[in-house]
Design a protein that fits this description.
By secondary structure, this protein is mainly β. The protein is 12% helix and 40% strand. It is built from two helices and six strands. The chain has a five-stranded mixed barrel with strand order 1-3-4-6-5. The longest helix is centred in the N-terminal third of the chain and has 9 residues. The protein is globular and about 65 Å long. It starts with a strand and ends in a 35-residue tail after the last strand. About 10% of the residues have low confidence.
Length: 144
């Protein structure tokens, strides 16, 4: 089974592109995932100049890619569920380089950053006209 769920912060702003021909949106982003070190161990790592987070490349396709580029900016907290994808390529000097990235299936925004058009409280559902709604009295016959 190839399934991964990560929660972390955007290490930089996402890069939105569109595939030539199909116009499909694709966003690449690097996610900083905290290593979960104890306070003492974290301080030790920082003093030694070692990273206290893992930096993981994430690829998102379609409408989620567009939403990610619109609502996530450097430092934003978000979650990703997907699968690990590996690959390799040859450099100009003939060296083989290996790649690992997460192919996102689902992305959730856990915090609203500065790169948004609306705040979380600005979203409205419907017209906001609640005059047509009626209060429902308690009904003991309802099975839940």
């Amino acid at each position: 089974m190839n399934n991964v769920t990560l929660i972390g912060r955007a290490a930089r702003d996402p890069e939105l592109r569109f595939v030539p021909g199909s116009g499909m949106a694709v966003t690449k982003i690097t996610m900083a995932v905290d290593k979960g070190l104890s306070r003492d161990k974290k301080q030790e790592f920082e003093n030694q100049g070692k990273p206290t987070a893992d930096f993981i490349r994430v690829v998102v396709w379609g409408k989620q890619a567009e939403n990610l580029s619109q609502y996530v900016s450097k430092g934003s907290l978000f979650a990703v569920n997907g699968s690990i994808q590996t690959g390799s390529y040859k450099t100009a000097s003939g060296e083989t380089r290996y790649t690992i990235e997460v192919l996102a299936i689902r992305v959730e925004f856990l915090e609203w950053g500065e790169n948004q058009n609306k705040s979380k409280d600005d979203f409205s559902f419907g017209t906001g006209n609640f005059e047509d709604f009626q209060t429902i009295e308690d009904d003991d016959d309802v099975p839940f």
